[in-house]
Amino acid sequence: MNxxxxxxxxxxxxxxxxxxxxxxxxxxxxxxxxxxxKRYIDMxxxxxxxxxxxxxxxxxxxxxxxxxRHLHVMVYGEFIQHTPNALAQKLTSLLPAALNCCYFVxxxxxxxEGALKLAKRYxxxxxxxxxxxxYHGSTHGSLSVSGNEVKKQAFRPLLPDVRFxxxxxxxxxxxxxTETACVIMxxxxxxxxxxxxxxxxxxxxxxxxxxTGTLLILDEIQCxxxxxxxxxxxxxxxxxxxxxxxGKAFGGGLPIGAFIADKKxxxxxxxxxxxxxxxxxxxxxxxxxxxxxxxxxxxxENLLATVxxxxxxxxxxxxxxxxxxxxxxxxxFAIDFDSAERVNAIVEEAKTQGVICYWFLSHPNxxxxxxxxTITNEQIEESCRVMLKAIDNS
Length: 394
Ligand code: PMP
What we know:
Elements: H1 5-11, E1 26-28, E2 31-33, E3 39-42, H2 45-48, H3 57-69, H4 82-93, E4 101-105, H5 108-123, E5 127-131, H6 140-144, H7 149-153, E6 162-165, E7 180-186, H8 199-212, E8 215-219, E9 243-246, E10 257-261, H9 263-266, H10 285-300, H11 304-317, E11 325-329, E12 332-336, H12 340-352, E13 355-356, E14 358-359, E15 366-369, H13 377-393
Parallel strand pairs: 3-13, 5-6, 5-7, 7-8, 8-9
Antiparallel strand pairs: 1-2, 2-3, 4-10, 9-10, 11-12, 12-15, 14-15
This protein binds 4'-deoxy-4'-aminopyridoxal-5'-phosphate.
Residues 107-109, 112, 135-137, 186, 190-191, 219, 221-222, 247 line the site of 4'-deoxy-4'-aminopyridoxal-5'-phosphate (PMP).
């Protein structure tokens, strides 16, 4: 085994000077194991990915079966393959009728890139509206519509004609006009520190988009797949997006994303020009097998039914005078403190004590918790004991 920190730090590109640096030998359920046998409870699900836990046996089995049939055989969109077909059938059966056509891609950011292209192409308009403090990915298009100015500054020029409105502020909806191709919005803002919009706001947003012929793209890459207690967060707001983007937990641990729309809209990428969005690996059959098994597990294990109760339990146990605020929907939490230094100290101390919690990209005063939905009450109690101790010691 090669667990050399030297190789990791020098021969693998680094994204920060302070990587989290635990060494992983295996992962199972809510646990990660280091080669020395140390066990960690993963309270962040690999950042919103392992919603059904690590290496769920049904997912591993589905992947193995696909490995025995075939791996990649052709670029996206040309050959009929059982597994992508079965996944598209299953996923659309779980979505409103208007979201009936899936384009499978490789990541969250690519799902958003595809969605933005589709909106421009369908409406013939250029302007895109996004939200302040949003995060939609790290490639040029997704970065252009993300709110974090510090992250964007060094990479300009980015996409032109992008305007930002304040999330959950109804007055700003007037900035959506007949010039606007699309609004792209996280249904629940994740990296801004779990921001939950009001129902009336979401209804007004949908109405304004309808009035102006603007497509509504809801990014559920982080908040989808049961995280908030419903399979998709938009279900809780009684609205339906024109385009839905998903990724992360969708693949059950393998890389896959999707943008999903009505077939009539999606057709725009088929004509003038044809091949309006193309991808070699999108809809990779092994990733599709993993995603299909993940959806089946969520359903068969009735995981959505217990999300709210587990979220409530976790919230009630995390009581400490140093906590300024907790924002929560389902099992998606931001825990606010008075400083980023305090948060850093807590995250480091919890790691030492065997619990993985983590920071947010754009909200340094909070740490995040988003455990696998399969976590048990006992595991919640154990992790809360450790996190409270970490807060005490920080
Ligand atoms: N949208 C949201 C809401 C996200 O949280 C993320 C990832 N944190 C992305 C898009 C980008 O996904 P990926 O990293 O798979 O490109």
